[in-house]
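Per your request, structure below.
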């Protein structure tokens, strides 16, 4: 696989990092709303990911640390929109449409691994909470949504060096982690 990259991502990814708090709020609206159970599960799984202590790229890694979170939320939004017209018509739909850029950037093989990873997040836990716990317990869901809101309010947009080397590092990091 080539390490060539399209420089358009030097504009796209910083925008995603700037909107990450709002993106989390959009998914929280699905978790707390009346969408389909599948949509709510994928939204909860994507949000639960932001609380994982061992995610694909540690949040402290300069330039890249929150890119994986932005990617995971977009894949989760895309999966949440599958077969759910109400979700597609919501702000979640736009977030889900961004998955085309994730797929284009990563390539089919790595994207498929990322999508499988996100699907499997529905089975995992973060902070001792599974997706089923979040959706099945009103008190836990309320606490979770409060924590998501607090995270979004406290989120500080990280730097993103507008250099093709940053894109190459990002792609290489995800390729290695998803191998």
């Amino acid at each position: 696989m080539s390490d060539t990259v399209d420089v358009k991502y030097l504009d796209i990814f910083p925008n995603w990092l700037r909107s990450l708090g709002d993106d989390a709020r959009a998914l929280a609206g699905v978790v707390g709303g009346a969408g389909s159970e599948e949509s709510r599960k994928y939204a909860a799984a994507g949000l639960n990911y932001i609380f994982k202590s061992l995610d694909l790229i540690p949040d402290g890694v300069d330039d890249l640390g929150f890119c994986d979170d932005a990617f995971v939320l977009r894949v989760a939004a895309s999966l949440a929109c599958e077969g759910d017209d109400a979700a597609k018509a919501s702000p979640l739909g736009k977030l889900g449409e961004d998955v085309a850029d994730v797929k284009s950037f990563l390539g089919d093989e790595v994207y498929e691994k990322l999508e499988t990873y996100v699907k499997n997040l529905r089975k995992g836990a973060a902070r001792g909470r599974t997706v089923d716990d979040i959706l099945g317990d009103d008190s836990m869901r309320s606490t979770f949504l409060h924590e998501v809101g607090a995270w979004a309010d406290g989120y500080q947009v990280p730097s993103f060096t507008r250099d093709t080397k940053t894109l190459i590092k990002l792609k290489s990091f995800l390729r290695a982690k998803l191998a």
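Strands lie at 125-126, 129-130.

Regards,
D.
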